[in-house]
Amino acid sequence: MSVETTGAPRAFALPLRRKRLGAELPGWIAYALAAPSMILLCLLMLLPIAVMLVMSLTNYRFGDLSYAFIGVENYLDLADDRTFWRALSNTFVYVAIVVPGSVALGLALAVMTTGLRRGRKIYQMIFFLPVTATVVAMATVWKYLLHGTIGPFNLVLQSLGLPAIDFFSDPDLALTGLAIINIWSLAGFNMVLFAAGLTAIPSELYDAAEVDGLSEPLDRFFSVTLPLLGPTTLFVIVTSTITAFKVFDTVAVITRGGPRGSTDVLLYTTYLEGFSYFRMGSAAAMTVVFLAIIMVFALLQTWVLDKKVHY
Amino acid sequence: MMSAGVELDRIEKTYGATTTLRAATLDVKPGEFMTLVGPSGCGKSTLLRIIAGLLPQTSGEVHIDGASIDHLPPRERDIAMVFQSYALYPHMSVAENVATPLKVRRLSRMARLPALGRLLPGQARTRREITDEVRRVADLVEIGPLLERKPAALSGGQRQRVALARAIIRDPRVFLMDEPLSNLDARLRVTMRAEITALHRRLGATFIYVTHDQTEAMTMSSRVAVMMDGTIIQCSTPQGLYEAPEDLRVARFIGSPEINVVASDTVAGWEGGNTRLGQLLQRPLHIAFRPEAVRLSAESAAQTDMLHLSCHIERTERLGHDVLLFLRVLADGAGVTARIPAADFARLDAPGGVLTASLHPADLLAFGPDGKRVALPGLAAATNRGLSHVG
Ligand SMILES: Nc1ncnc2c1ncn2[C@@H]1O[C@H](COP(=O)(O)OP(=O)(O)O)[C@@H](O)[C@H]1O
Ligand SMILES: [Mg+2]
């Protein structure tokens, strides 16, 4: 094609202002353009964490006018603090119940609803509802549902001739009760993630599996669906773990750490430390520990995603 | 290994109100390389999936060696299929991919469990046999060195070979291939074409090969079935399809460049020809002739039977050995494509781009208004000129 003397191309060839498309900008312009977001990033993300790190090295008490640096004393205190260790172990137990439960339930719901010929949307919407509900409000409902004497769950058990289970006043069961609520509210979210992963599996792969003889639903699930959901599953596990780690509101509303400290979890202890006992330095140290744990999971995710489950 | 004949008896497939297949009937002989060719969306994949048992037909029957197989699930049909997207299991190595059909058949479900399954007693021999089979088949399609790789680390051509190996290893009676080469680049496609035909000769199994590429169809198969709008409109040898298309759509689809098609009253106005042709052209017909049937000369030759048209050259395309000339008939403006050897083109002297195209009446194919072939009796039998230009 020649760009010669006809009228129309000439109009394009002489624009009022020349725009440099694809040209490299001088470095300072690039930095100047990036500056606002860099500043915001520092102010909103990095600064609060830095302040907290510093605070964890002080004996600052909420409302005090002065404070002193005490080095890692807060951390050493934590190491000797039985309440802290109990909270930590409670949190891990809680995560160990919630993650498998919500991931397996989410996967099951996703596989079952995507397989539906009709009504898929409506079912997925219903299962997603708990995600949108306010946890505090729903916690109240669950407290009633699982109540030892007036709760419908126990009324059903009793009518079947079974002994009543009082989840929230039994130290052995309270944590499980809270975990059930979290599974209930998390499964719908995981279902949506899994459903998205399922639609990305090419249907020809199922055809190939069928021709190869993998025709039973279980065979298909274990030889095609599950392996191809690998990256999705890992992502779901990590996000569920982080969510479960952050458990706070159900504890605050239903059990307040009780009975006898059996549901005392990391964030709740931190909250009490900072806002009931006003020991900000110590609370900051707990938060640092909390962040470190979350960070390990996040790093684990990127590492495994890069290494293994990528096809 | 036994090869088997496949008969399709009036297969219909409807999706709600839309009909995808209508009375598709085809008889594939044992050991034959049958190609199903047709434009995209004509229902080729649908038909193949019905043969494989992946999709139920609305009506009609599929027989293998005379026995109906419609009640059999895919795994019991003894049919292997190669997919356009290769459909390899991305999480398995090449060796595991190829071994899957055998493992499924020879190992129990427990023994197939990852890691755990190996601990079960009494399957070491079966596993060894499977490994040997995998190695043998891998050598056959030349993927021996790739066995430990994941599909993601393979090129398109290598993936295609893995897919072939996975089909071969089961030693099936029938191979179905759904556009297996369409994702490969042009060069590789030519080599794989030769390899698949060689494979067919070596295995002796029945191949049903689907493609939208008429060149593939014409070069690979013993017979070609042309499919349009959900039905098979002609099934014949490549030569047969080219020389004697029974439908105007077949004539147009097979051969490149496309066959010339002109209305009969236009042809009637052309100079020359014999009286018999004149009579035949009284009816409304589509007259078609291959580009290589057109002979070109600078001066109007006076050969009696031939049709002569004065044309000017609109455009030429050089294809290396041959030259395509896109001509416009001066008298009526009809477009005619001619294909002549480059050497003849060099000798051709067309002052002012005007020359005379000549056609032998015997080279004309006539099709009725419904597109069906109409015999033109009384004209000399078709010559074999230009038939080497298939594709
Ligand atoms: N599940 C389906 N529902 C409705 N129409 C379908 C479905 N699957 C295929 N079709 C239609 O059937 C026709 C044939 O498809 P296909 O067999 O894939 O064609 P080809 O393989 O020849 O390109 C297409 O027009 C397509 O729209
Ligand atoms: Mg197709």
Automatic annotation (TrEMBL), chain A:
PANTHER family: ABC TRANSPORTER PERMEASE PROTEIN, INNER MEMBRANE ABC TRANSPORTER PERMEASE PROTEIN YCJO. Pfam families: BPD_transp_1. The keyword Ribosomal protein does not apply. Its main location: membrane. InterPro entries: ABC_transporter_permease, MetI-like, MetI-like_sf. It comes from Antarcticimicrobium sediminis. GO terms for cellular component: plasma membrane. The chain crosses the membrane at residues 28-55, 92-113, 125-145, 173-201, 221-245, 283-305. Keywords: Cell membrane, Membrane, Transmembrane, Transmembrane helix, Transport. Belongs to the binding-protein-dependent transport system permease family. Signal peptide: none annotated. CDD domains: TM_PBP2. It is found in: Cell membrane. It is a multi-pass membrane protein. Residues 88-301 form the ABC transmembrane type-1 domain. GO terms for biological process: transmembrane transport. It comes from the Bacteria. This is Sugar ABC transporter permease.
